[in-house]
Amino acid sequence: xxxxxxxxxxxxxxxxxxxxxxxxxxxxxxxxxxxxxxxxxxxxxxxxxxxxxxxxxxxxxxxxxxxxxxxxxxxxxxxxxxxxxxxxxxxxxxxxxxxxxxxxxxxxxxxxxxxxxxxxxxxxxxxxxxxxxxxxxxxxxxxxxxxxxxxxxxxxxxxxxxxxxxxxxx
Length: 170
Prior knowledge:
Number of strands: 6
Helix content: 25-40%
Structural class: alpha+beta
CATH architecture of the domain at 1-83: Orthogonal Bundle
């Protein structure tokens, strides 16, 4: 894999360095990771790399379209090596898990602007937001527990009161 990454970097006019090779490998292994997460993983491999070197390398690799930068609303930028294949992302509003989703229409751009203002559109970024199965299950369990404990006669603990009501068994 290292040789193919070196070739890819050279084909795109990027100087091959140990840091860039490590970043390319780590992005492939950890898609949608933040720069800080990638830096930690690269440090585990190389022993040392400055935060600035991580950001500089990511910037070069994004500019050369070797990796893709995604920045969902309210989130740090994330990086992936899946480029030039018109896919989108699905993000959980609660835990922020992120998944790749292939485009439903398959053609770039999948969205046609009503008024392109003279632009030649070559990319559409779509992010689907929702709740993942794990967070939905957790929310459903929490709702069930709240409903169970808040029914009349159930044992309820109030943070500002020391009194409790206890339900008697029928």
